[in-house]
Specification:
Blueprint lengths: L5 E5 L26 H11 L3 E5 L7 H11 L3 E6 L8 H9 L7 E6 L13 H13 L2 E4 L6 H10 L5 E3 L15 H9 L4 E5 L2 H4 L7 H15 L4 E3 L12 H11 L5 H16 L2
Parallel strand pairs: 1-2, 2-3, 3-4, 4-5, 5-6, 6-7, 7-8
Pfam families: Amidohydro_2 (PF04909)
Family: Belongs to the metallo-dependent hydrolases superfamily.
GO molecular function: hydrolase activity
Amino acid sequence: MNGRIVDAHHHVWDLSVRDQDWITGPELAPLRRDFLVSDLLPETEAAGVDATVVVQTVTVPEETPELLALAAGHELIAGVVGWTDLTSDGVADELTRLRELPGGAALVGIRHQVQSEPDPEWLLRDDVARGLAALESAGLVHDLVIVPGQLEAATKAAAAHPGLTFVLDHLGKPPIARGETQPWATLVRNLAALPNVVCKLSGMVVEADWSAWEVSDLRPYAEVVLDAFGPSRVMYGSDWPVCRLASTYAGVLDAARELTAGLSQGERAEVFAGTAERVYGI
């Protein structure tokens, strides 16, 4: 496959700066080390990736300015999906402040770890709705990191904010390792029916059997989102370095290429660059 490639979803962290408290248990031990832009660069260069979007990992206000500074210092990073407290009365002012920081022009969206919220309807709270409205006013997008049980609430939230673009990370984390498609498929199709929602073709290998997955295991889920959203509302993301639990950077990209091999050249160009460039304005 030729053409421009945007990796619309990766992370970086430096454990000497901040602990990643979600890295717990022996199964996640391979992630308990620093993953810096200098570690990513050889991977992107070898894979022919032209630009990336770095995404928040922890819900602390200090991380987003750090990611913006990385974008200012590295041409590879074209966009930052950061975090700020969407429930804060001062969220609009905080978004303005972030954009005035070094690298602030790279801020393209905000993400909250909704998957960790005990309230399955967290996205429908009044204070969250105010924060989502502030994102829309600021011209930013909202990345959704949710599990299948939260897809219904996400659909209601997206319907209530038709002027805000929502980006579904990791297909909504379907149970690929169990080989189950329902009720996820129905729920994600309901979400896709809303024109202000797009989906990242990312994170699939981590939801599969880490040691034994094959592209055929991923295909039913990729086919659902490609059919439901259409290629012009699907964007590729590596989910590096989390993807390293189940694959390599190149292996994830190769899998995505195989999963999209049946698309036209123009449709593949949308998945691998055009959608991310348009949605994130990069």
